Amino acid sequence: MYRYIIEDTRHVPPFNEPASLLTIGTEPLKIHHENTFSQVFAGSIELGEPLSSRDELYKVRSDQESVVYRDSLWFDKEFFEYFVREARRIGKACRAAFPASDKAFHNYTLPLTKSFVPMLGPEGKIIFQADLWYFPEGYTEEIVPLIVPSDAREIGFYSVPDFMTMEQGELTYFAPMRSLISIESWVHVYFASIIFGNFGRAGRLDNLMDRSLFAQLKILWQSVMEQRQILQSSGAVKIGKDCDIDPSAIITGPTEIGNNCSIGAGAIVDNCTIGDNVNIDAGCVLKMSTIANNCFLPFRSSLFLTMVMENSIIAQNTCLQMCVIGRNSFVGAGNTFTDFNLIAQKPIRAANIDGELQSVGQVVLGSAVGHNCRVGSGMVIFPGRMIESDVVLVAAPNRRVISRNVTFEESDHHFVKFGDIHKRFYPREDEEQEEEALWDQW
Q1: Is the pLDDT confidence value at 442 over 70?
Q2: Residues 256-309: pLDDT tens digits?
Q3: What are phi and psi of 381, to 5 degrees?
């Protein structure tokens, strides 16, 4: 078995980093690919030479079974397993595809991206092809699209006040059994980690319970033996080694908690994914959120459908709603990241990888903070905004409400005493290229 990677070097805003290095869930995307391949393929996997685009597919060797994928493409084990199994059954060169009518792919995979190739599929219906191929005996020009359905289940908030949504069901989500998305925006990190990650896991558990009487009896027996409610039992809550969890903390599943974690008194954790070495202090509330490794949440931090990358701190009394926070960042006390347009109840817009504003198709959406950021206390951040990597925001009378994107050039560390202590670690792609050119000249 050979594995070929199409390297996508484009930087994803506001992180100023290629997608393969971004943390999706609790692990970087490139590590996720490694783990997914090891789970699906039992034998040894050899790495072929890297490719720069899909135009170089002809370089795939002709003597062995091969898989080719773009390294900015996130897919879960269930999607990849289905694709490989069906491709092997067909016995032909295949390219992964999904139907345009699939609600999960339509709502979360297609917005803000131009990477998927549309074509007419069976019965004249539109399908989209992804940069994921299977070759049984090396490259061939005869490639057939292999449609992978999401089999999504609708879950979420079915009854909300009329002023928040124009139509019933706008705050429901489609939890897929199989997921795929191209990471080209912070919104895609949010969709992959929260909707495809946490909601997808919940949907698969619901599906298992519907199909299997044995699964129902097993989780019921675990809850009886542990004297806990079903969603608080070990059948729904997975806890790693050496964790310190206060007895008054409320943890409901499906939730996964890593190793060496601490959860304080009165904390509430509901349908979350938590990495290793995470400290969640007293009174914190986490709803359907993901916290990567080595993060610290002091008392009364509140996260709702939010993704926090590794080594970050979310200080006390801060409220994050439908947001993405980069690695090594600090969000100070009392900040509020809003997720709702008060005046016009219409889908919120966000920037794609080229900086163009497009509709996300969601009536509620938070904001994004890049890597190595420092956000002061008591600010309000409007929906859909981005704070670029390496930015420092100091609370001041003229900067309490963040109503537009904040770039590195607008960072407050440029204008305060000793601001040069704060170093820039994530320059933009064009700045990296200029620096490399200068080094080459030198």
Answers
A1: no
A2: 999 999 999 999 999 999 999 999 999 999 999 999 999 999 999 999 999 999
A3: -110, 125
Q: How many CB atoms lie within 10 A of CB 225?
A: 10
Handedness of CA 230, 235, 236, 238 (dihedral sign): positive
Domains 2-181 and 242-441 belong to one CATH topology: no
Asked if 293 and 274 touch (Cβ cutoff 8 Å), the reply is no
Q: Please state, in angstroms and rounded to a whole number, the distance separating the CA atoms of residues 26 and 166.
A: 35
Residue 124, exposed/middle/buried by CB under 10 A (0-12, 13-18, 19+)? exposed
The residues near 420 (Cβ < 8 Å, ≥ 6 apart) are: 413
Q: What are phi and psi of 358, to 5 degrees?
A: -140, 155
Do 324 and 15 meet the contact criterion of CB atoms below 8 Å apart? Answer: no
Q: Which residues pair with 2 in a beta bridge?
A: 46, 66
Q: Which H or E run includes 393?
A: strand 392-393
> What is the C-alpha to C-alpha distance for residues 439 and 435, in angstroms, rounded to an integer?
6
Return the domain boundaries, the chain: 2-181, 242-441
What would the DSSP string read from start to end of 234-290?
Answer: TTTEEE-SS-EE-TT-EEESSEEE-SS-EE-TT-EEES-EE-SS-EE-TT-EEES-E
Q: Look up the CATH number of domain 2-181.
A: 3.90.550
CATH architecture of 242-441: 3 Solenoid (2.160)
pTM, full prediction: 0.94
Residue 116: other Cβ atoms inside 10 A: 22
Judged by DSSP in three states, 105 sits in: helix
The count of other CB atoms within 10 Å of the CB of residue 234 is: 14
DSSP 8-state secondary structure symbol assigned to residue 354 = T
pLDDT mean over 392-421: 91
User: What's the residue count for the chain?
Assistant: 442
Tokens 């539109």 belong to 126
